[in-house]
Amino acid sequence: MRSPPPGASFANVQQATAVTTLLAPASNTKGCWLRTLNIDFSAGTVQIYADTAAPLAAGNDTTKRCIAQMVSGQVNTGDRWLPAGIGIFGIGGIAAAGFVAVTWDLAS
Description:
The protein is globular.
């Protein structure tokens, strides 16, 4: 049996001003590796959070872990360990226009 490629699970979304769940915390039962995080925005801002629950609002929820923030550009990051129960969330600011793409591997 062949192993799945690194980053076998993924989400590609057009990010809006509302919170988007990319990986639900309940789906991350044994931890996971965040392999890639690509943010490509032509306008506005986007924030990516990794926490047990979604952020309440862009830039205002200081109780959640913001792992990336981008203003009109592109960022690539990855290979971060996320413990069990941690989800990945995106939220765009005012006039957000762009895409967020993430890949991850759940621990088995």
